């Protein structure tokens, strides 16, 4: 496991490794565009399918960075690349503002596994916040589907998803740790 010093250093690297130009976001305009997102991410960003993330209450800067990464192809997902191809930077900022303004989702998770995950969560909370709420370009984990979180941690661990210090963090987690942490954050 990482020490507190390594965790804080990793968070600082992650926080300074992305930059998003500030545009005045219009959440109402984002709500109009969000219809294309509802099929997978659910009404108001609350997905009923654990394969797709909840977008409700997600950090707007994080959403904007991820949408731009899908659009540029630096984050791979054929469906998302297709859906973001014709979005302007303003559209992206508006969508991010819309989803960030939605009430948080709560996905739930295996209670016993969540208790184990809570004991291991310190490594995540240094960057993702005391309640898993995220900040700026660090994503909200609280209320996310455990299955989605588990898949993303495995992608980071195997290197098929890139993202600042997350490869290093995930590489130190066992499959059991990943399941427990995912259940914990889903339960918040």
From TrEMBL:
SUPFAM superfamilies named among the record's database cross-references: Cytochrome c
The answer on whether this UniProt entry bears the keyword Manganese reads no
Alphabetized, the UniProt keywords read: Electron transport, Heme, Iron, Metal-binding, Signal, Transport
Question: What is any Pfam family matched here?
Answer: Cytochrom_C
Organism equals Methylomicrobium album BG8
Name by which UniProt lists this protein: Cytochrome c553
Which residue ranges does the record assign to the Cytochrome c domain? Answer: 25-188
Highest taxon of the lineage: Bacteria
Give the signal peptide as a residue range, or say none if absent. Answer: 1-24
* Gene Ontology molecular function, alphabetical: electron transfer activity; heme binding; iron ion binding
- Asked if the Swiss-Prot or TrEMBL record annotates the protein with the keyword Iron, the reply is yes
């Amino acid at each position: 496991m990482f020490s507190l010093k390594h965790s804080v250093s990793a968070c600082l690297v992650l926080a300074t490794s992305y930059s998003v130009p500030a545009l005045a976001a219009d959440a109402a305009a984002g709500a109009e565009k969000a219809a294309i997102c509802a099929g997978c991410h659910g009404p108001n960003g609350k997905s009923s399918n654990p394969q797709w993330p909840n977008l409700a209450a997600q950090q707007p800067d994080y959403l904007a960075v991820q949408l731009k990464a899908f659009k540029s192809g630096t984050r791979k997902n054929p469906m998302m690349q297709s859906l973001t191809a014709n979005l302007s930077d303003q559209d992206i900022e508006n969508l991010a503002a819309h989803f960030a303004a939605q009430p948080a989702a709560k996905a739930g998770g295996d209670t016993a596994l969540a208790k184990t995950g809570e004991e291991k969560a310190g490594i995540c909370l240094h960057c993702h916040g005391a309640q898993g709420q995220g900040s700026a370009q660090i994503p909200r984990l609280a209320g996310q589907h455990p299955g989605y979180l588990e898949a993303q941690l495995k992608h980071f661990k195997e290197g098929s998803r890139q993202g600042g210090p997350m490869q290093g963090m995930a590489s130190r987690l066992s499959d059991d740790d990943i399941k427990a942490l995912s259940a914990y954050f889903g339960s918040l």
